């Protein structure tokens, strides 16, 4: 009888351990940073929002950045949408969506930089430290 109780206690502990690991794996801290690398002395204005969180308008002089963090996972689905404005341009980009980004990055660092296609959001490649994963803006 005593040993049966012992087995039950061990199984309960294993279950709790499993649940702890599962919950941790299902919720990850995400860090978003946006740097102004437009060049040409241009100021970038960025405004990011989720359904229940407004990061507020950020005015970025050349080479300045801002950042924010949040927890994301199956218990807290999070999508952040940002507008980007600079002299002569206004665009939207979904800077973080669980559906496309959850497995892509925990350190989701972006630079808005002028590429051969004009200004674009480019994500940091953690393997080589370059902002080279460039994406198209949202369609209008
Ligand atoms: C990131 O950098 C590594 C090393 O240079 C490279 O092999 C890889 O293709 C890059 N990933 C992307 C998505 O560009």
UniProtKB/TrEMBL annotation:
Sorted UniProt keywords: Secreted, Self-incompatibility, Signal
Coiled-coil blocks: none
Similarity comment: family membership: Belongs to the plant self-incompatibility (S1) protein family.
Gene Ontology terms: cellular component: extracellular region
Listed Pfam families: Self-incomp_S1
Subcellular location: Secreted
InterPro entries: Self-incomp_S1
UniProt cross-references to PANTHER family, sorted A to Z: PTHR31232, S-PROTEIN HOMOLOG 29-RELATED (PTHR31232:SF43)
Taxonomic path: Eukaryota, Viridiplantae, Streptophyta, Embryophyta, Tracheophyta
Residues making up the signal peptide according to the UniProt record: 1-25
Main location: secreted
Name of protein: S-protein homolog
TM region(s), chain numbering: none
One example of a Gene Ontology biological process annotation: rejection of self pollen
Keyword tRNA processing applies: no
